[in-house]
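Appendix C: a fully annotated inverse folding record. The material below is reproduced so that readers can follow the format used throughout the book. The structure is listed first as C-alpha cells, followed by the designed sequence.
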C-alpha cells in the first residue's frame, strides 16, 4: 500500500509542486525559516521519489521554471506580467510530460495551474506586502530623534504615535494628549520621550530683543 502511494504519479507530482510553493514563499518573504525547511524536505523527497519512476527530467526543469515564473518573477518584473503566462505554459507542458509511460491526471494539472495563480495573488502577494510594510517597532532602523505626538496622557507611562505606529512611552514629566514629543531612547518596545521644544523665531528671541535695547 505504502509502496503504491510512493509511486503514484499524482501524489509525487503534488509533493513536488508543494515544495516549489514553499520555495516561492521562502524567496519572496525570506527569513521565516519554516518555509525554507519545508521546501528543502519536499524537494529532496520529490527527487528521491522521481528516481523510482520513469521521470522526464527536462519536464522537471520546465515545472520548476514555470512554477517560479508564475509565483516569483512577477514581483521582480512588474512591467512584464506576461512572464506569469509563460510560466503557466511551462508548468502545464512539464506536467503533461513529467513521466514516460505514466501520466499525471489532467484534472489535477488544471487544478494546480489555477491554484498556482491563486496562491500567487492571495498568499504570496499579501505576504510580501506585509513583509515590506513591517511595523517600525520590529525594524532595526534607529528611532531615536524621531518626532511624534501623545495619543494618551503620559504620567509617567502613556502612548505616543511615532513613525506610523503606536508605542508605549515614558516621560520624566507629564505630557498631555496632543503634545509634540521627540524620542530620547528606546528600551524594548518602550520609548523614552520628552516634550519637543518649540522653535524660537528671531523676532521673538529674548536675547535679540535685549540686545536691541
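Designed amino acids, in order:
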Amino acid at each position: 500500500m505504502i509502496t503504491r502511494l510512493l509511486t503514484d504519479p499524482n501524489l509525487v507530482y503534488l509533493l513536488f509542486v508543494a515544495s516549489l510553493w514553499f520555495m516561492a514563499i521562502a524567496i519572496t518573504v525570506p527569513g521565516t525559516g519554516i518555509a525554507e525547511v519545508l521546501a528543502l524536505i519536499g524537494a529532496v523527497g520529490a527527487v528521491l521519489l522521481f528516481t523510482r519512476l520513469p521521470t522526464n527530467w527536462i519536464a522537471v526543469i520546465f515545472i520548476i521554471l514555470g512554477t517560479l515564473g508564475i509565483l516569483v518573477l512577477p514581483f521582480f518584473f512588474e512591467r512584464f506580467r506576461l512572464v506569469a503566462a509563460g510560466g503557466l505554459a511551462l508548468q502545464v507542458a512539464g506536467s503533461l510530460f513529467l513521466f514516460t509511460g505514466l501520466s499525471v491526471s489532467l484534472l489535477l494539472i488544471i487544478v494546480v495551474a489555477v491554484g498556482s495563480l491563486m496562491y500567487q495573488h492571495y498568499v504570496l502577494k499579501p505576504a510580501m506586502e506585509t513583509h515590506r510594510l513591517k511595523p517600525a517597532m520590529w525594524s532595526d532602523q534607529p528611532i531615536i530623534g524621531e518626532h511624534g505626538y501623545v495619543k494618551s496622557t503620559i504620567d509617567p507611562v502613556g502612548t505616543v504615535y511615532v513613525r506610523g505606529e503606536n508605542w508605549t512611552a515614558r516621560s520624566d514629566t507629564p505630557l498631555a494628549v496632543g503634545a509634540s514629543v521627540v524620542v530620547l531612547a528606546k528600551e524594548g518596545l518602550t520609548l523614552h520621550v520628552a516634550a519637543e521644544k518649540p522653535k524660537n523665531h528671531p523676532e521673538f528671541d529674548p536675547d535679540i530683543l535685549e540686545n536691541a535695547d
